[in-house]
Amino acid sequence: MGELKRKEYEELVEPLRRELSHAARWIAETGQRLVILFEGRDTAGKGGSIDMFASTLNPRQCHVVALPAPTERERGQWYFQRYIPHLPARGEISLFDRSWYNRAVVEPVMGFCTPEQTSSFLRAVPEFERDLVEDGIFLFKYWLCCDQDKQEARFKARLANPTRRWKLSPVDIEARSRYQAYTDARERMLEATHSPWAPWSLVDFNDQRLGRLTLLRDLLDRLPDRELPLPTIDWPPLDHEPLREEYRTLRPIAPYAAGP
Amino acid sequence: MGELKRKEYEELVEPLRRELSHAARWIAETGQRLVILFEGRDTAGKGGSIDMFASTLNPRQCHVVALPAPTERERGQWYFQRYIPHLPARGEISLFDRSWYNRAVVEPVMGFCTPEQTSSFLRAVPEFERDLVEDGIFLFKYWLCCDQDKQEARFKARLANPTRRWKLSPVDIEARSRYQAYTDARERMLEATHSPWAPWSLVDFNDQRLGRLTLLRDLLDRLPDRELPLPTIDWPPLDHEPLREEYRTLRPIAPYAAGP
Amino acid sequence: MGELKRKEYEELVEPLRRELSHAARWIAETGQRLVILFEGRDTAGKGGSIDMFASTLNPRQCHVVALPAPTERERGQWYFQRYIPHLPARGEISLFDRSWYNRAVVEPVMGFCTPEQTSSFLRAVPEFERDLVEDGIFLFKYWLCCDQDKQEARFKARLANPTRRWKLSPVDIEARSRYQAYTDARERMLEATHSPWAPWSLVDFNDQRLGRLTLLRDLLDRLPDRELPLPTIDWPPLDHEPLREEYRTLRPIAPYAAGP
Amino acid sequence: MGELKRKEYEELVEPLRRELSHAARWIAETGQRLVILFEGRDTAGKGGSIDMFASTLNPRQCHVVALPAPTERERGQWYFQRYIPHLPARGEISLFDRSWYNRAVVEPVMGFCTPEQTSSFLRAVPEFERDLVEDGIFLFKYWLCCDQDKQEARFKARLANPTRRWKLSPVDIEARSRYQAYTDARERMLEATHSPWAPWSLVDFNDQRLGRLTLLRDLLDRLPDRELPLPTIDWPPLDHEPLREEYRTLRPIAPYAAGP
After folding, report:
1. N or C: which end of chain C has fewer CB within 10 A?
2. In chain C, at which residue ranges do the beta strands (DSSP E only) sit?
3. pLDDT tens string D224-247
C-alpha cells in the first residue's frame, strides 16, 4: 500500500479541520485550556503536524511554543520553569514543538545532560503533569515514529533542498548514528511517564500525511463532546455600492511579474 | 485578466521561497535583525502572507507576533512598551500580525482611543522607528489593500465556512460600514509615518496570490545582497542496514481509516 | 516583660546579619536556591522582616516578589503560573511578600475566590511544593502572628502617619472585623499544607523586633552548615595620591540646607 | 565641617519622607509614571539612596530595577530592549540601580564594549529619552559623586565587614586604578546626554547622609505641585474585645534568646 496522495489527503483532512475548528470554538467559549506536546524522531513530521493546527486556528488563540536553548541562568532554574509561562490561559491552545521531554531523549542521547538529570526528570514529570491535569488542563502527548529508511530519505531531501536546509541541524546529523539509542531512551521515557492522567500516544509517521490524519482524529476523539451551534450573524447588505481603494499619498507597488 | 491559479502560484512562489531561505540564512549567519509589519484592511490577506513566511522559515528563527488586546496595566504604559520585547535578537526575524499601527487606524476608526492618542502616536512613531533603524534593524512596513467588493466576498466566504468563522470578529462586521473611514485614517497615517528611514509599501491584494508574490519579491529586492554559499555537509552512508522502530512499551495507535 | 528597644535590637541583629551574609555567600558560591514565603496577618511585620533581609543582601542576588493583583488573563491560568517565573535561579534568593497562599487565607476570607478554589488549592499545594523541594530548592514558609490589640494599635499608627498611610488598604480595614475568620482560615491552611518537606513556622510578632530576630535565627539554624572562608582580596595601595572629582560640564547641585 | 550625624540625619529626613509619601500618593492617584536613574561611582551611595525610597514607599507601587548582566541573546538585541519592560505603568515608580548608562561609563572604562558601541549609544540616548518624556514619563537622572579618598575608605570598610563584602566586586577593585578614566567617561556622557528634556543632576556624596537629603529635596522640588488631601477613613471601634491568636495546629516557635 503506497503513501497517501496529496489530493486524497486534502479531501480527508478537510472535515477534520472543520471538527478542529468546532473544538477550538468550544475551547474558547467554555474557557478550556489545551496543551499538545509534539515529540518524536527528527524528520518524523512534528513541524508539518503543527502547521496543520496552526493554519486552521486563530493565532490569537493558538500559540506555537518552540523554545531556544536555555540561557545560562535558565539552566540554573527549576527544570520546568521556562516552559510554564507558555502554558495556556483560559480559552487558549499551546502547541509545544518539543517540550520538557528534551531531557528524556535528545539531551541524554546527545550527552547534553547527566544521567542523574534524566533520572531526576523522569521521576518528577508525572507529578508535574498531574498538577496540570488536576488543574483542568487538557494535556495530550504525541510521539511521532518513523523507521530509519524513511528518516534517511527525508534527511537527503533536506540536504538537496535549500529551503529545507535549516531543518538539518548538526544534532540531526549526529542523530543518524544514534537511531537505536533514541529508541532505547524513548522506551525508558514511556515506562516512566505514560501515566493514567497523561498517557502517551505513539503515531506512525512513516506516511506523514496519514500520520497527521491519525493524530488529529485521535485528538478529536479524546476531547469531550463539544458541539456548539454556530452563532448566527446578522449580515445586512451594504447600503451603498462597494467602495474602491483610493490612493492619495502613496500608490501600490508594481505587481509581481515573472521574468522574461 | 483573471486571478492567479493555485498551480501557477505555486510554480511562481517556489523560487521566491528559495531566495527567502537564502536571505534567512544570511540573516542568521551575519546576525542581522529583520522586522516585517503586516497591516491592512480586514480580509486583505495578512494571515496568508505571514503563513507564506512562517511555513518557509525555521520557527526558532522566525517569530509571529500577534498580541492580544492590552491589559489594564499595559494600557497605562508607554504605548510601544508591550511591542518592544518582541523585537528580534541577532539573527532573528519578527513578523508582526498587526503592530503599533493599531493606534493609527483600527483604534480611531472603531473609537477605541481618543483623537489625542492617535495624534500623539503619529507624532511619536517616526522617532521611535528611527531609533530601531539606526540601531541596525531592518524594518519593512507593508499595507495590504483591497477594494470593498473583494472584502465583501471574502467576508461572505468566512461566514459560510466554519473553519474560517474565527476570522470574522465583531470588529470586522463593524468595519464593513466604515470602509471609507479606514481609507481616510490610512492616508493620514501614511502622511505622518512614511519616512525615509521607514517607508511604507502598499500592496494590492485584490488578487491575494499575486499580492503575496508582489510583497515577497519587494522584500527580497530591498534586502542587501545576501548570497552565501550553502555549507557542504559531510554525509557518510550508514554503516549498517537502516533500523526499524521497535515498540516495547506502547504500540502506535491505529492509523486513520476514513468512512464506515 | 516589655518590647525590645531599638538599640538592643540593633546589637542583637548585627551578628545574625553577619551570619546571613555568610549564608548568602554560600548560596551564591555553591549555586543553591532559596525561597522564603512571608505570610501573616496585616500589620504583623512582613514588610519589616523583608527589609531586614533585603538591606543586608545584594539586590542582584536577592529579589523581593510582591505581585500585583492578577490580570484577567492570569486569572485564567494555572494558579501557580504567575508565581513560577519568580522562583530563584542558581545562587539566588527570592523573598515572597505574600505568595500563592493568598488563595488559602486572604482570598476566601474576603470573598475573592470560591470555596472550591480554596479547597482545590489546598489539595494541590503540597504536591507543588514537593516538586520544588525535590528539585533542590530550599523552601521556608513563615507565618507572622499577632494579637488583635497589637493589630489595632498598629492600624491606628498607620492612620496617623502619612508616610505609613499606603500600608492601610481597604482590605486591611475590612480585615479588622474578620480577625477570627483569618484565624480559622489559617488553621485550615496549616492542617492541609504543613508537610514534612515544606513545614510552616509560626512566629510571634507581638514584639516585631523580637519576631524578626526569632525568624532570622530560625532560618539560619535550618540552613545546612555553610561556613566558607572569606576570600582574601589583594589590596595594594594606590600608586598615586587619591584623586578628586573634577567637574567640567556640570557642577553638583547645592547641598541640602534645612530651614531658614 | 564634619559629616552629618545619624540622629541629625534622621530628624532631617523625616519631613522629606513625608513629602515623598505625598508625592507617591499623587503619582498613584493621578496615574503618573516616575523613573529615577541612580548612577555614579562605586561606593558613592546608590544603594543607600534607593533604600531611602524603597523603605518609604509601597513595594507594589515602587520597583527597584537592578538587572543582571545581559544574556547572550539580549546582547544581540536593541540596546534599550531589556530595560524597557521595567518602565513604570500608570501610577508606578521605577528606581533603576544602574541603567542604560552602563554603556556610557562602566562598560567602556572596563573594556566591556567597543568605543563604537559607546559612541552609538551616546548618539541614541537623547532621542530615546525624549520618546519617554514626550509620552509623559517623569525621568530624573542622578549621578552620585565622591572623591577618591572617600572611595578608598569605603572600599576598606567593605573589605573589613563581612556583611558588606558582597558590595566589593572584581569590577570595583579594578575601578580603583581607573578613577580618572571614570571622570573622563562621565564628562563625555554629560556633554552628550544632558538634554533640556532629561537633564542630569550631579550630587556630592562625600557625605552620604547629606547626599541623600540633597537628592531627595531636589527630586521633590522638581515634581509638580502635588498636594492631595489625605482621604479620611472611617474608623469605628471594634464591637468586641480585641481577640487573641489561637493556635490549634502549630504553636509559634520559641522566641530568640541571645547567648548563654
Report:
1. C
2. 34-40, 62-65, 93-97, 138-145, 200-204
3. 877 788 888 888 889 899 999 999
| CB spacing of C81 vs A84 below 8 angstroms | yes
pLDDT at D76: 94
Tell me the chain A residues in contact with residue B187 when contact means C-beta distances shorter than 8 Å. 246, 248-249
pLDDT tens-place string over residues B20-45: 999 999 999 999 999 999 999 999 99
Quote the minimal CA–CA distance from D26 to chain A in Å.
Answer: 34
ipTM over 0.85: yes
B116: contact with D, CB 8 A cutoff: no
CA angle at C69 for the pair C64 and C75, rounded to the nearest 5°? 120
What residues of chain A lie within 8 A of the CB of D73, using their CB? 68, 71
Q: Does A29 touch chain B (CB under 8 A)?
A: no
d(CA A156, CA A165): 10
- What is the reported pTM? 0.91
3-state helix, strand, coil in chain C (%, to 5): 50, 10, 40
**Nearest Cα residue in chain B from A20:** B163
Q: Please name the residue of chain A whose CA is at the shortest distance from the CA of residue C80.
A: A84
Whether chain B has a CB inside 8 Å of the CB on D127: the answer is: yes
Per-residue model confidence as pLDDT tens digits over B190-223 = 999 999 999 999 999 999 999 999 999 999 999 9
Judging by beta carbons within 10 Å of its beta carbon (0-12, 13-18, 19+), is residue C242 exposed, middle or buried?
middle
- Report which listed range, A67-71, C179-183, C226-230, is most confident: C179-183
Cβ-Cβ contacts under 8 Å, B81 against chain D:
84-85, 87
DSSP label of B165: G
Q: At residue D62, what are phi and psi to the nearest 5 degrees?
A: -115, 115
- Count Cβ atoms within 10 A of the Cβ of residue D99 and give its class: 0-12 exposed, 13-18 middle, 19 or more buried: buried
What 3-state DSSP class applies to A79?
coil
Task: Determine the residue among A71, A75, A77, A82 to mutate to test chain D binding: the one whose Cβ has the most chain D Cβ atoms within 10 Å.
Answer: A71
For residue B27, give how far its alpha carbon lies from the nearest alpha carbon of chain A (Å). 12
The CA-CA-CA angle for residues A111, A117, A118, to 5°, reads 75
* Domain ranges within chain A, ordered by starting residue: 6-222
CB-based contact A71 D71, cutoff 8 Å: yes
Task: Answer yes or no: are the C-beta atoms of A123 and C135 closer than 8 Å.
Answer: no
Check pLDDT > 90 for residue D212: yes
Residue D105's region, left for phi above 0, alpha for psi from -120 to 50, else beta, is alpha
Superfamily name and number for B23-222: P-loop containing nucleotide triphosphate hydrolases (3.40.50.300)
